[in-house]
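>> received
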Amino acid sequence: VRHLRLLKDEACQPIWRRFAASPFPNLRVLGLAGLMRSGSVDALLALDRDFTSLGATLESNDLGQAMSQLEQQVRKASRTGLDSQALDAVGRIALNEEAAPGVFDFAAPNILSSSRNPRGLPYIVVMLDNPNAIGRRSAKTAFCNALRRNPAQPSPLDAVWKPEYAAHCPSVLPDIETDEADIRFWKGWWDSHEEEVAQAAGGPLPRAFAPARYRTATRGRLVETTQDIEGRFSTLVFLFVSPRPEGRPGPAGALPGSRTL
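>> returned
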């Protein structure tokens, strides 16, 4: 499979399609992920329909990255990103009971906010309760990115944004207490503004529900550090870039198993 990914997309299409039609869940996931990386929204919708039987496969660990590449491909072609149907699929998959913890924590909120479509907000609000601290921060960032006015990307959400909300959007390195206070603010904001958002969107919004793992997992906290600001920034960058080659040490203060340059 690794060798297939090195080939041009068009050369792999027949193989990915054959895998996607396989009766074996692990091969289906590989095929659908390959088709998504090539820009197939139909593959995303097929994954959504059958995710209950596909989400438990080991190969599903690559689906978050495949979804992100799909969104990039669609945006490159249309400049508007995924449509409402596809966004609903992303939200349902990320909150599905069969989704492995952590697989969609970073990708899904960003995809749901990228087009500034109001339909993404109900899913992101649920993700604000993610027991994983980095997942909660990703959801908070995505919520702000969807709401915040962007002249290059007008949205019905422009009608509900107020400049003072920026105080509750992420700074580069917020402390833990501020981070959690901002999340409580946005959850409360949603409770009092959901109908206003629906009116701005011109119709009802999807219903989103937290998976059981959100209620049963221990709520994690980002590790506090005594590093100076430069060291903290370096650690944060190392969390979100590529996996560290085996045996190569991370920066001072980096979390075990973190991602690095």
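>> The chain has a mean pLDDT of 83.
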